[in-house]
Amino acid sequence: MGKLNIIGLGYIGLPTALMFASNGIEVVGIDLNTKLVSTLNEGKLTFQEDGLEEVFKNGLDKGIKFSNEYEKTNRYIITVPTPYMSDTKKIDASYVIAATKQVMEVCDKGTILVIESTIAPGTVDKFVRPIIEEKGFKIGEDIHLVHAPERIIPGNMVYELEHNSRTIGADSKEVGEEVKSWYDSFCKGEIVVTDIKTAEMSKVVENTFRDINIAFANELAKMCHKEGMDVYELIRISNKHPRVNILQPGPGVGGHCISVDPWFLVGDYPDIVNVVLGAREVNDAMPQYVFERIHEIMKANNVKDYSKVGLYGITYKENVDDMRESPTLQLLSIFNKYNIDTVKMYDPCVKEKKFENQIMNLDEFLAGTEIVVVLVAHDEIKEKQELLNSKVVYDTRNIIKCGKKIYRI
To answer: Of 233, 255, 16, whose CA–CA distance to 114 is shortest?
Structure first.
């Protein structure tokens, strides 16, 4: 077999490439971003992730290479982004299409092309197969198609790459087993081989299930706030039932999985999905709810100046630097809509200044701040929460015990 080309070196592609390389597979990581490739070739990581530094070093020691150029081989894994189109809610497959076309220009006959990017059910049939056939290749002989959706989460990527189960969708059992053997080089979890469309649907369904559960928790939070009840106590008691597992409410849903994948189903099955659409609408409305609660809390504490309000946390989840679809960014867009531009923000994981009102030091962030809105449960604020003793705290993550007055979601 030829060397393995992994196309797209973002949050999924880079760790995946490094895991393959660290376990003895010859890998070339491909990305069109010249600065990103240069940074990796200088021996520097492009984002923070627990355990990734060691895997990076191991990969470099084993000879992984990074390039802007697609290489001629017979093994490719595509891990490019797959956003959704805001108007139709359908998948924007343009990155996958572009990568597939580039592969077709250089690949050997007998190539196995794996799409690891999260895609809507039917994407391979609708977008990928026609490209291959237009190039004169025969699918199943010249080119073998596979979908192997990733199943990892920022903050725990290295562990989950190694231990989570995987799904391999292929046109033929034989090719599926071949690709399974690649992932067997590092994956200790169960690897299931199925057909491509089932693999496509499985990833989207997994994230949609979680989105619906979160939406239920968020609706409970709104109901409990209206009735003066403690939603966390309600969930704690309800979860004692052996068949109940309600998740925790929060200020919104971020990241590139749960906040995006359900829209693929909404876009593709508009006459069928009702629960999925309802959940998406509930979760997308949470930043607006948080905005209104901030206004209530300001009024209750006689705080009239928004410069006295500080947003703690910009990333979409704790202890990572990933800001994709972050609830904080959604909240900021609401502030901007009302021409409110004096609210401060701070995040210990965002090391570069990205926003005009972003403060780069916790002490400076807290100085002059009367209301601290905790939007992300970073370890830092858990460990230093005594610094909030003199502050009014709006804790959307239920982690703060210190404060002059504490409000929950």
So the answer is: 16
Indicate whether 179 and 58 sit together in one domain: yes
What CATH number should be reported for the domain holding residue 11? 3.40.50.720
Q: Which residues form the catalytic set?
A: 203, 257
In tens digits, the chain (409 residues) has pLDDT values of 679 999 999 999 999 999 999 999 999 999 999 999 999 999 999 998 889 999 999 999 999 999 999 999 999 999 999 988 888 888 999 999 999 999 999 999 999 999 999 999 999 999 999 999 999 999 999 999 999 999 888 889 999 999 999 999 999 999 999 999 999 999 999 999 999 999 999 999 999 999 999 999 999 999 999 999 999 999 999 999 999 999 999 999 998 889 999 999 999 999 999 999 999 999 999 999 999 999 999 999 999 999 999 999 999 999 999 999 999 999 999 999 999 999 999 999 999 999 999 999 999 999 999 999 999 999 999 999 999 999 999 999 999 999 999 999 9
CA distance 167 to 342: 47
- Is residue 252 a contact partner of residue 327, using CB atoms and an 8 Å limit? yes
Domain that holds residue 372: 228-409
User: What's this model's pTM, rounded to 2 decimal places?
Assistant: 0.90
CB atoms under 10 Å from CB of 364, counted, come to 12
CA–centroid distance for 106 within its chain: 31
Instruction: Find how far residue 156's CA is from the centre of its chain.
Output: 12
Which tokens hold the place of 104? 């077709």
